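Quick entry, no commentary yet.
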Amino acid sequence: MEKRNREILRRNRIFLLDNIESLDRLLAELLAADIAIVNDSMVDSIQSNPTKERRISALLDLLPRRGPTAFSAFCVALRRTDQGFIADQLEGVTTGVEKKMETLTVSVPPVEEEADVIPTLDDKKGPIPVVVKACTPAFFQQIKAKHKPYKMEAKPRGLALILSNTRFGQASGLQDRKGGEVDLLNVEHLLIGLGFQTFPEEDKSAEDMCSILKNFAAKEEHRAADACIVVLMSHGAQGEIYGTDGKTVEYRDIFAVFDNKNCPDLQGKPKLFFIQACRGDAVDKGTDAPDAGKMQDLLGPKSRGTDQADAKASLPIRSDMLFSYSTSPGNVSFRNSEYGSWYIQTITKVFTEHAKDRELSSMLRMVNKFVSQKSASCPGTEHHGGKESCEFVDTLRNDLYFFPGI
């Protein structure tokens, strides 16, 4: 496949993942093409993936390696399976949606009904007014019938623990995380809007964090729940997160508390971890940025944040878990002293707008898209111009929709 066509597929990957519907017919067309783009074993390999999203991803990963005609054959197959609007997007046929998307930046006000648009970031100081848009009954029934997602109907949906450390003792050697209190309010209001019962905990030592996590995992209410969420916000290092006393807790120990062996009441149910923390101290000027309190005085209304170190984690092999990190391994994560962290702020706005009709992994890719467009404004420091790239890994076996309001 030509380089420019590979780039088209890369740029439109989120669009393709969100819009391809008739995958079985599409694969049949590619198999029957004059010059076959896939063979039977490739189709079997693609179809062996557990979710529709992963099946589409497998096809998109395969196409660039299938020769010079793969791109055109893919577009032809899309048209033959009543998905011509997707081919139009790939081949550059200008549509109203495309014209709007070309003008989007992270600071552009929202366009009504535009799929990938979120409200402006850093537009107001303090917490975001969170009003989660409700899912329609028709969409709920359609998704249940077509995709067989995780059950998400319990009231409350499940329990959500929020551990937020913002004030650190002098002996810890760590600075306070100014802006962290805004993150706590944002994420708590969001989770309530998504139907979860929240348990916020602030400024805990490493020992207290361990105790709180174990007690939370042992709650009997998990039996009737459809899901569980844990949000961790603090300083961090490679594979660990800090308590307010400067001691650390390893992520693998946290995750183990909730695995199928140690938490049987959550077996087969999605367990979601969202982590706002640095995963090292490097500043990647092209992909990642710091979350450091030292730079708080440099922030103005248009600044993108000042950052401190948060944390990193490794993925244990356990089912039905998702681990979402504010930054990539080895890098810092940005937090603004007035608006909160880039990551939590963007999750709050994206989920508020799109949880009504978007699958979780699709929303997390959207979060990364918008966060990665931001640049840190910290003149005179090594963090100036820093970038941030979010990351998530999972062992989920089904699609996950929150179905707010149902």
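second:
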Amino acid sequence: MRMTSTSTAHHSVQVAVIGAGVLGLAVARAISQTAEVLLLERHATFGSETSSRHSEVIHAGLYYPTKSWKAKWCVKGKELLYHYCRERHIPFQNCGKLIVATTQEQWKKDLPRLQQQALRNGVTDVTLINKEMVQQLEPNVSCVGGALWSPSTGVLDSQTYMTHLLADAEADGSSCTMVRCSNVTGARFENDGTIVLQVDNDFELHCKHVINCAGLQAAHVAQQIHSHNNNNHSNWTPPRHYFAKGNYFRLQGLANPFTRLIYPLPEPGGLGVHATIDWSGTSTKFGPNVEWLDPNLDLNDNHNSNMDGNLYCVSEEQIPQFEHEIRKYWPDLPKDSLVPDYAGIRPKLHHPSLQHSSPALEQDFYIAGPKQHHVAGLYHLLGIESPGLTSSMAIADYIAQQISISS
């Protein structure tokens, strides 16, 4: 990175990656082998928002629309992730998942439909199994008819995964520097193709490529970049993020009732309140539910009052609803055995209370590159929710390829 001494500090770098969640770390690792990377993180440490508040599931790729980015990158990313975990000795379990039917309609119609969707996505190892086979695998599970068995689903230690990604990016032979507590507040686009980022109003960062992996803040960062410059190349307006909260409860005082992941059928906005075993096999958590937040909520404006306070609180008032959902597949759940664990926030590109003109945005990741906004070298990764963790290495490879093509 080159610095020039003027009244406002100027730094130059080939690639700036905004956001050090799991996706930003994976992108920085992929690019740092061939280019100089500056990784900008607004918090004091990496992976402190969505990347540390989820189920830690390695998804198989069953649910997502055929030919969507989610389907493509989840299936590819799953294989890359398992390989990386084995290679780096990152704790994981390839435990598999049962998606259980709790009504006759689910058994006769919904599960076969989901199996066909999985097959269309290239997930060829899923099988429908009857109730007797479910009981053999998981004696505590109750179902109607049977379940869909996904053997390639698993769980991992996501914190250790992120630690390895950063270590790779900063290792000898790579060229990545992480700058903590750094906020991108604006940008301008120069005629020679340089993207100049304003960082904390303290210095300017002159870049050939900028990758916006800011997670919950990605839409806000995109707005900052495109609205605060004196050379707007297009009339492109970034889509905005809406937010859904997912609450988790932990099983207390009981041995793990399951050895595999237990899922209901998907619900609007999520995959249902499922049972997830810890990668170490020592605990079970349930969640997330889908709690849509106010469509007018701006996490940037409400950071001080909400982000570190009530927004991430898990209310015990939700326990009865969780118990009701869990008992659909585990009727023997003891009363008063759930305790609040944690909550996470998902960035969404739609909200159920609003009408949207692009249904495709509701179901997929959105990668806004030069074809969308006509700014060479600039990529915004928007609406990166589940299966973002599973897809992270596949998305990173795609972005690294785009950078290479445009260089």
